[in-house]
């Protein structure tokens, strides 16, 4: 449960600090909570936590905190670190990782609340989901209840562990570029990175593992691997393509012969877009 609370604290810490008490909570309550929870979890965050204390103490008022947050994440027209972290994984907005995250949420019985504007790949949404997974796993150990269909460690390794290093580096670079000497959010990112690395048992700087395939897709692939495609299967494929207004003539051509018969040639895909986001001015 301490691990759940730790990630939940960080999820809330990255929310827009628009409440009047935001600065007070970040300055007075959050460091003590993180220190206590990190001790329980075995996370070594003393150095970045000390830096966070100093940075947040140097912020004179709530307006300055909101200015820093807006400059880092919200100002249109500037390249800035992205809280929609799928951009670091896909090089674009609303890429495949966003759909994969949403699938994870749904498999655990979660649907998006219409009042929530954040996308599935928003940092706080992911961390709240992790907090839920850790809490569910803790309850399963205590009470013998069924564990969630996705393990917290699996979600960490598949998503958070793959973007946290780029996100932290982006925050550090943006702080220098925007001349934000009192940028506490880069230290929060360092704290998060330490916790994530500890959970996935990685050393700083070591590349996180590639994402694991969704278990349901893996089950279906295992079930269908080696089975020949029948005429009935081809008919279904043609019907679905036709329903979407897509051509289906290629379906009956063997894959190995398709390029030759259809006169196709291999093309080089364009380079992935930058992971930094730019909003229209």
Question: What's the arrangement of secondary structure elements?
Answer:
Layout: H1 2-13, H2 22-41, H3 46-57, H4 62-73, E1 79-80, H5 86-90, H6 96-107, H7 123-143, H8 152-177, H9 185-199, H10 215-224, H11 231-243, H12 255-262, E2 277-278
Antiparallel strand pairs: 1-2
Mean pLDDT: 82
Q: Low-confidence stretches at least 5 residues in length (pLDDT < 50)?
A: 202-213, 269-281
Computed over alpha carbons, the radius of gyration is: 23 Å
Main-sheet strand order equals 1-2
The amount of helix comes to 55-70%
Strand content: under 5%
Shape: globular
The helix-strand sequence is HHHHEHHHHHHHHE
- Number of H/I helices: 12
**Distance N terminus to C terminus?**
43 Å
Kindly name the structural category.
mainly alpha
Number of strands: 2
| Biggest beta-sheet profile | 2 strands, antiparallel
Task: Spell out the key features of this protein.
single chain; 281 residues; mainly alpha; two-stranded antiparallel sheet; 12 helices; 2 strands; disordered C terminus
């Amino acid at each position: 449960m301490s691990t759940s609370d730790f990630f939940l604290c960080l999820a809330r810490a990255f929310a827009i600090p628009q409440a009047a008490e935001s600065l007070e909570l970040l300055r007075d309550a959050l460091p003590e909570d993180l220190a206590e929870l990190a001790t329980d979890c075995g996370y070594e965050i003393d150095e970045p936590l000390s830096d966070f204390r100093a940075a947040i103490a140097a912020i004179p008022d709530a307006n300055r905190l909101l200015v820093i947050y807006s400059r880092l994440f919200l100002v249109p027209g500037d390249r800035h670190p992205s809280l929609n972290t799928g951009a670091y994984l896909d090089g674009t907005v609303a890429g495949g990782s966003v759909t994969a995250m949403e699938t994870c949420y749904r498999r655990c019985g979660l649907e998006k609340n219409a009042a929530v504007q954040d996308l599935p790949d928003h940092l706080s949404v992911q961390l709240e989901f992790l907090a839920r997974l850790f809490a569910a796993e803790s309850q399963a150990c205590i009470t013998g209840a069924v564990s969630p269909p996705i393990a917290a460690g699996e979600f960490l390794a598949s998503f958070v562990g793959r973007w946290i290093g780029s996100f932290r580096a982006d925050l550090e670079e943006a702080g220098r570029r925007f001349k934000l000497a009192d940028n506490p959010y880069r230290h929060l990112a360092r704290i998060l990175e330490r916790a994530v690395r500890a959970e996935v048992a990685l050393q700083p700087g070591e590349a996180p593992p590639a994402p694991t395939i969704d278990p349901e897709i893996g089950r279906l692939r295992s079930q269908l691997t080696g089975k020949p495609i029948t005429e009935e299967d081809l008919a279904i494929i043609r019907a679905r393509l036709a329903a979407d207004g897509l051509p289906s003539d290629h379906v009956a051509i063997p894959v190995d012969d398709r390029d030759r018969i259809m006169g196709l040639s291999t093309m080089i895909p364009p380079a992935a877009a930058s992971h930094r986001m730019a909003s229209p001015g």
